[in-house]
Q: What sequence folds into this?
């Protein structure tokens, strides 16, 4: 998936801006990193899959993880580096975390102040880590299959998330029964086919919303049968409607 891999020993703590469609190529750090989009929607990709996070989510990237970034919408990126010995979440895989109003302001303040060892900054960091420990994990991971057969099927749906064919119909195209494919989804991705497709569609919806696409158009382009059905699924996944989603 990734060929040029940069090794940046220290994960920076800073604010960075990327234009829509902008990327940060594959790289890794010896430190952990918290990646947060104060504006726009951020996609993080690794060999294990992709994670998408708008302004109410942050992504935990463990030390040593090879990852790349892509901006959807005008992105204001806040990066918090933590030593590999400091893992307040106890997580060794990339994870999406909920970001409430207080944690949002803490991340923004911490990445905009000078990187020093002043007492004020140390206290700010301590409160930031406390809030991180209390942040619930969010299921926004779209895993990449190892099975070549399943990878072919998933690539078909990635190219067109609105494709509404059943697993049996897709199976005819890739040359496998729906039973075989269903078993592969569970064993390879630990998800059912409907769960994976819903995750794909929700991630695609976040990208389109960041690009200021109307809710009705997003519902259509992501394969929901109606705008109301899309709003219902989106609300259950994220806690509020797509029309009020804070992407920037």
A:
């Amino acid at each position: 998936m990734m060929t040029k891999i940069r090794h940046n020993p220290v994960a920076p703590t800073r604010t960075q801006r990327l234009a829509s469609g902008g990327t940060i190529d594959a790289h890794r750090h010896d430190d952990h990193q918290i990646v947060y989009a104060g504006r726009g929607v951020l996609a993080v990709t690794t060999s294990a899959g992709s994670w998408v996070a708008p302004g109410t989510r942050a992504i935990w990237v463990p030390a040593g993880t090879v990852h790349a970034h892509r901006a959807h919408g005008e992105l204001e990126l806040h990066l918090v580096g933590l030593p590999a010995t400091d893992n307040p979440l106890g997580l060794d895989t990339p994870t999406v975390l909920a970001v409430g109003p207080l944690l949002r302001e803490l991340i923004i303040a911490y990445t905009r102040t000078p990187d020093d060892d002043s007492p004020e900054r140390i206290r700010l960091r301590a409160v930031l880590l406390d809030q991180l420990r209390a942040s619930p994990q969010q299921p926004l991971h779209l895993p990449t299959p190892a099975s070549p057969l399943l990878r072919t099927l998933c690539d078909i749906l990635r190219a067109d998330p609105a494709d509404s064919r059943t697993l049996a119909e897709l199976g005819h195209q890739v040359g496998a029964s729906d039973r075989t494919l269903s078993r592969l989804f569970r064993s390879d991705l630990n998800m059912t086919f409907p769960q994976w497709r819903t995750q794909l569609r929700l991630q695609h919806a976040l990208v389109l919303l960041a690009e200021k696409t109307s809710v009705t158009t997003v519902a259509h382009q992501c394969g929901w049968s109606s705008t109301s059905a899309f709003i219902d699924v989106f609300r259950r996944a994220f806690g509020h409607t797509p029309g009020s989603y804070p992407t920037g």
The beta strands are 6-8, 14-18, 23-29, 32-46, 49-53, 57-61, 67-82, 95-98, 137-138, 141-143. Residues 21 and 154 are 22 Å apart (CA to CA). DSSP finds eight helices and ten strands in the chain.
